[in-house]
Description:
alpha/beta, globular, binds thymidine-5'-diphosphate, 5 strands
Amino acid sequence: MLKGKLITFEGIDGSGKSTQITLLSDYLLSLGYRVVLLREPGGTEIGERIRQILLDMRHDNMTAETELFLFEAARAQLTREVLIPALESGAWVISDRFSDSSVAYQGYGRGLSLEMIRSMNTWATAGVRPDLTILLELGDRARDQRLRKRHVEGEHDRLDIESERFKQRVCEGFREIASEEPTRVVVVESQGEKEDTAALIREEVKRLWQ
Ligand code: TYD
C-alpha cells in the first residue's frame, strides 16, 4: 500500500524548479508532513553515477537510445531503492523531474517513439504515477536571462547546450503532456515573484488532501 503522495516538478531547464521545490518542502514540513526530496537522474548512489555519464560534456557522441536507457536505468533504481519505500512509509515525496521528462526530452526533443518511452517508463517506475505534477512555465526572455547567467557562471552540462529548436520541441512536449492529462499535470507560470508562484503551487497541492 502506498500511503504517501508523489509530487513531481517538470519544466525546461531554468524554469525555477529548485526554488519552488524548496518552498513547497518547507511548507509541507511546517504542516508536520514527512518530506523526501528526490532528483532525476540521480537520488541513489548508482543513479548519481549514471547522472555523471549522462551530463558529461565529453560524451557528445551518445546516441538518443543510450541516453533513454540510462535515464530509465537511473529511474528504475530510484523507484525501488527510495521512492516506493518512502511512499509505503507515508512520506510526501517531491521529485525534481520524473518520467514526463523522458517523454518531453527523449520523445519530443530527440524524436524517439513516445509509445516506447511510455512503456519503458511504466516498467522503470513499477507503475507508480505522480499524484500531482507541477509543470513550471517561464517566458522565453526570462528563461534566456536565467540560462545566460548560468552559462557565465560556467554551470552547464551536455543537455544544456542543445539547440533552441530542441528546447522548443521539449517545451511543446511538456504542454502536450499537460493537455493530455489536465487533472494530474498543472501548468504554473513562474515569471512573477517566487512567493506568488509558490502560493499557486500550494493551492494545487491542497487538492491532494481534500
Ligand atoms: P539537471 O542539472 O538536473 O537539470 P535541471 O536543473 O534542468 O533539472 O539535468 C538534468 C537534465 O537531464 C536536464 O537537461 C533534463 C534532462 N533529462 C532528460 O533529458 N530526460 C529525463 O528523463 C530526465 C529525468 C532528465
